[in-house]
């Protein structure tokens, strides 16, 4: 039985029920549309209200029908907005913002716009009855938590939306009163103003006008100062929405971006440094969607607005150098993923097992002993012929490790050599390294794969066929097998010998690199176990606990070439 707190119990038809408050019910994921077979539920709708305030969810006390702790509700935002062909704003921005904020987003399209970074070249409204059909399809089936509106281009569409929301109440309504695009093009004419004011605004949990939109809603009122914004917020609040966020992005002479949030009781002045960037197209849509996303997760409005603002600012800051389109306003990158692709020198994207040929693993203690920086050690190994580098910096402070890793990454990429990080998935993510190597007691490869995504390289240390099988199941790219010979580099390391290596190679579906006590004198013997998936040797002390890393690497390279491996 759920551990939910509850108002009281209720007896009905000789069965006991828990009576949950709307808040508990919502937090537990029982929306008014929540359907679970055999679960009795009552939905009480308040006439004329879009909110689920009167909603009561009941659960059979002691029953096992709904294990609510095992069934978590996926937060869901429905955006009702126009499509932007340039994908900077509108439906496309809403989808990206919700994805970035990790909520599900469904879409009802109200208009198609032909649009780019220059402006809006054309608009085609979706017929009212088809907007109604889309709304009904989603709302009747998909447990929507929050509806967010953007471009509502006709009176008929606004009325259709309000009517449908009365029929299918949701937890909250976020209204971004889109009227004019950032390029100055009209997206919803003045004719819809009265319907907006009379029907939609009173249903809203929050409205998010910019200065121009607030002014339009207030009969052309001049808004030039933060005090004007406060007055506007109060006047707009009188029109019925529970909260008003007046966005001051266009406020003249302000080095900060100032927004005013008013909830009928308190004003909150939300200030942040203004981000100087051309790539601001779609910030309004994205902010409103992000607020909707946080509300859908169950956060109160003030927290939702703060988090949403911080998210948009972070994305704008990240996207400053993104270069899309020739117009005055470019789109930004909600998912913070585009920039690395535009970096000049980038490594090949897919893992090539022949990269395991001469695998150089750094060691901070050895570098210290020989008085060289990790960067110098990596440079020398690459010059000597290393085909892949792993940074194994057990003693480094995180900040130093990250800085060194970034510098090493630049060098490696200049030479087309992949760079992996040992153990520290966080460092690998932070510096966008090519992948990680993890052992049996490190972060499981499956979790590392989820965090790193499909393209990064993941290696796993394996001493047995079972571990090799698991590494494959977990989505690793290669395995490291050892210790082949005894080593001083790793304490208490079990030696598997050449036989153990061969057994693991035979069982492994993944390419293998041998490790442990390997150097110029025995590399050939290792490679001659004749396993076609043994692609190379990984070496620490034989390269780095030596006076000249480059010379030692070159010697090992020659031995490996002589053993004719990596060719199958
Ligand atoms: C290529 C390669 N193989 C094995 C290891 C060892 O990893 P692990 O078992 O996690 O031990 P540590 O290196 O973290 O001490 C490796 N690093 N690289
Ligand atoms: C880091 C590491 N892992 C091992 C394993 O058996 O998984 S042996 C090892 C140390 C390898 O260092 P050297 O080349 O100096 O012997
Ligand atoms: Mg490890």
TrEMBL record:
It catalyses: 4-methyl-5-(2-phosphooxyethyl)-thiazole + 4-amino-2-methyl-5-(diphosphooxymethyl)pyrimidine + H(+) = thiamine phosphate + diphosphate; 2-[(2R,5Z)-2-carboxy-4-methylthiazol-5(2H)-ylidene]ethyl phosphate + 4-amino-2-methyl-5-(diphosphooxymethyl)pyrimidine + 2 H(+) = thiamine phosphate + CO2 + diphosphate; 2-(2-carboxy-4-methylthiazol-5-yl)ethyl phosphate + 4-amino-2-methyl-5-(diphosphooxymethyl)pyrimidine + 2 H(+) = thiamine phosphate + CO2 + diphosphate; 4-amino-5-hydroxymethyl-2-methylpyrimidine + ATP = 4-amino-2-methyl-5-(phosphooxymethyl)pyrimidine + ADP + H(+). GO terms for molecular function: ATP binding; hydroxymethylpyrimidine kinase activity; metal ion binding; phosphomethylpyrimidine kinase activity; thiamine-phosphate diphosphorylase activity. Its cofactor is Mg(2+). GO terms for cellular component: chloroplast. It is found in: Plastid, Chloroplast. It comes from the Eukaryota. Pathway: Cofactor biosynthesis; thiamine diphosphate biosynthesis; 4-amino-2-methyl-5-diphosphomethylpyrimidine from 5-amino-1-(5-phospho-D-ribosyl)imidazole: step 2/3; Cofactor biosynthesis; thiamine diphosphate biosynthesis; thiamine phosphate from 4-amino-2-methyl-5-diphosphomethylpyrimidine and 4-methyl-5-(2-phosphoethyl)-thiazole: step 1/1. Keywords: ATP-binding, Chloroplast, Kinase, Magnesium, Metal-binding, Multifunctional enzyme, Nucleotide-binding, Plastid, Thiamine biosynthesis, Transferase, Transit peptide. InterPro entries: Aldolase_TIM, HMP/HMP-P_kinase_dom, PM/HMP-P_kinase-1, Ribokinase-like, ThiamineP_synth_sf, ThiamineP_synth_TenI, TMP_synthase. Gene3D superfamilies: 3.40.1190.20, Aldolase class I. Residues 84-328 form the Pyridoxamine kinase/Phosphomethylpyrimidine kinase domain. GO terms for biological process: thiamine biosynthetic process; thiamine diphosphate biosynthetic process. Residues 358-543 form the Thiamine phosphate synthase/TenI domain. Its main location: plastid. Belongs to the thiamine-phosphate synthase family. PANTHER family: HYDROXYMETHYLPYRIMIDINE_PHOSPHOMETHYLPYRIMIDINE KINASE THI20-RELATED (PTHR20858:SF17), PHOSPHOMETHYLPYRIMIDINE KINASE (PTHR20858). Essential for thiamine biosynthesis. Bifunctional enzyme that catalyzes the phosphorylation of hydroxymethylpyrimidine phosphate (HMP-P) to HMP-PP and condenses 4-methyl-5-(beta-hydroxyethyl)thiazole monophosphate (THZ-P) and 2-methyl-4-amino-5-hydroxymethyl pyrimidine pyrophosphate (HMP-PP) to form thiamine monophosphate (TMP). HAMAP family: TMP_synthase. This is Uncharacterized protein. It comes from Gossypium mustelinum. The lineage of its organism: Eukaryota, Viridiplantae, Streptophyta, Embryophyta, Tracheophyta.
